[in-house]
Amino acid sequence: MSTCDILNSTWTTPESILNGWTEEKDVDDNVSNFAKQIRRAVERDQKQTFSKFDAIRFRKQIVNGWNYWVKVCIEEENSRCLHIKFWLAMGIDAKPVLISVIPNKTKNDPINV
Predict the structure, then answer these.
(1) 89 pLDDT exceeds 80?
(2) Using CA atoms, how far apart are residues 57 and 72, in angstroms rounded to an integer?
(3) Structural domains of the chain ordered from first start
(4) What is the pTM of this model?
(5) Residue 68 φ/ψ, nearest 5 degrees
(6) In what residue span(s) does the Cystatin domain sit (predicted)?
(7) Averaged pLDDT for residues 22-50
(8) Long-range pairs for 34-41 at CB < 8 Å and ≥24 separation?
């Protein structure tokens, strides 16, 4: 098997089509940790501190690293959420970089990309 065959079989699974976004799904431990790492940047961007910041759903895209859209619950009582977009470089020590925040979302709002 050639290197091209290996790369093609690795990168063309439904979840990793280059430039395509995955379907929305529940967060895993990795995405939850990325959201925790970027929380302070989101709070600075929104000029407020959140008492709750729980990542619940996400979508991702492979591009020179990974783009993530993550639905973050910030208020349980009103189902208030944010949609945050961040980029994560490839590499073991990569840290998420905030790209965008969409406020005024609810738990029922889909993550639209």
Answers:
(1) yes
(2) 7
(3) 3-106 (3.10.450)
(4) 0.81
(5) -125, 140
(6) 41-80
(7) 97
(8) 34/68, 34/70, 34/86, 34/88, 34/96, 35/70, 35/72, 35/84, 37/95, 37/96, 38/84, 38/86, 38/96, 38/97, 38/98, 41/98
Cα distance between residue 11 and residue 110, in whole Å: 26
Contact 63, 85 (CB under 8 A): no
Name the one residue in this structure whose structure tokens are 């280059």. Answer: 18
Residue type at 101 in one-letter notation: V
Read off the amino acid at residue 109. Answer: D
